[in-house]
Each structure stands twice: as C-alpha cells, then as structure tokens.
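User: Here's a structure from my thesis project, written as structure tokens. My advisor, Dr. K., wants to see whether a designed sequence matches the one we expressed. Can you design one independently, without my sequence as a hint?
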C-alpha cells in the first residue's frame, strides 16, 4: 500500500469518526429534549391534578358550609349565652345548640325572641296551668311543688304579677334558674311567651369544650 493510499484511509477513518461523533451528539440532544419534554408533561399532569384537587376541596367545603348554615337556620340554631340569669346551668359565653320543636315540656330550656333580643329561660308551666310562688320563691304548678334540682337558691325575684297566676292559652310560663336576678314571666316586662316567639329548646352545649354535653 502506497503512502497516498494510507493517507486516504486515515482521512476516511477520521471522517467516519466525525460522523459517528456527530450522530452521538445528536442522539444525546434528542434524548435530552425528550427528557425535558417528559418532565414538562409530568409537571403539567401534576398541575392539572393539583387544580382538580383544589376545586374538589373547595366544592366540598362550600357544600358542607351551606349544609351547616341550612341546618343551623332551619333545624338547630347555634346560640351564644350572655348574662347570668341561667346560672349555674349556663354561664355567660357558653355556646349552645337548640332544636326547633313544637313538643316542649316542663323543665326544658327554651330560647325565644323578646324585643329583638334572644333570651333563654326554663319552661315552668304550659297553657292553662296555674302557677304559684311561696314567700321563699319555691314554685307550685297546679298546686304541686315543682322539683327543681337545677336551682341553687330560691328567690321571689323581680315579681309584679299576682299569684296564683293562670298561664294564658297558647303561651308558656318561663323562669331563669338564677332566680334572684332573672327577669322572666314573674314580671310583666317579659310575661308569658307566645309560641311564635320560640326559637327552640336547648339540647347541647358545645363551648367551652370542657363543658361539652347535653343541656339539662
């Protein structure tokens, strides 16, 4: 083989190596481009899943909130207690749940509207019942002494109605558990409560947490 043939062969080898190097570089570039495209697709799919999750969560929260508002408005209003007329049963700042019902009974704690205010008192007597108080403030309904374990101390209180007193039709006689400070049906300022004033009967205390439980 002549020297010229050797030079030609070397040139061909170099050209082949250059082509191989070029092909390898293009393959690497294509692979890098594909990897970048795949990463971008993964990011896009993740973003779509994230958006769907957010939308689903927001929709669920809105639905739950709407149901809670509907339940609270129509069936179980949530009330904040203020004042001391129902101590020791209820304290100022307690949060309670009431239940709208027409089947209330003696001893239930009733929430009702009075002069655009929401008051809470205990159901003592119903329509047509006779209510009487002795000098110490103990309560008699239809001639029988009313057992009231929820009262710490009896008191005649702010009373200006004449006893014995008959509860008018379609009304109920209510009193606060803290008899010395409560203004209730013993006083004409509040009087007996009409059924259309009643919000509901208290069933559950939800705040403070340590006092969570049924209201009695």
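Assistant: Designed independently from the structure alone:
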């Amino acid at each position: 083989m002549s020297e010229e043939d050797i030079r030609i062969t070397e040139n061909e080898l170099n050209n082949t190596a250059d082509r191989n190097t070029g092909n390898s570089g293009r393959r690497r570039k294509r692979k890098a481009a594909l990897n970048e495209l795949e990463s971008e697709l993964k990011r896009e799919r993740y973003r779509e899943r994230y958006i769907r999750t957010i939308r689903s969560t927001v929709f669920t929260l809105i639905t739950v909130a709407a149901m809670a508002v509907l339940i609270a408005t129509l069936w179980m209003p949530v009330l904040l207690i203020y004042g001391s007329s129902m101590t020791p049963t209820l304290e100022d700042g307690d949060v309670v749940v009431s239940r709208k019902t027409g089947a209330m009974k003696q001893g239930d704690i009733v929430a009702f509207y009075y002069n655009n205010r929401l008051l809470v008192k205990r159901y003592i007597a119903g329509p047509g019942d006779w209510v009487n108080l002795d000098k110490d403030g103990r309560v008699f309904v239809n001639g029988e002494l009313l057992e009231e374990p929820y009262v710490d101390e009896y008191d005649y209180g702010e009373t200006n109605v004449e006893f014995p007193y008959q509860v008018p039709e379609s009304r109920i006689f209510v009193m606060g558990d803290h008899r010395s400070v409560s203004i209730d049906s013993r006083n004409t300022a509040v009087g007996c409560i009409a059924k259309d004033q009643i919000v509901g009967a208290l069933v559950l205390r939800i705040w403070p947490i340590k006092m969570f439980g049924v209201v009695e």
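When you compare it with your expressed construct, this may help: Residues 3-74 form the longest helix (72 residues).
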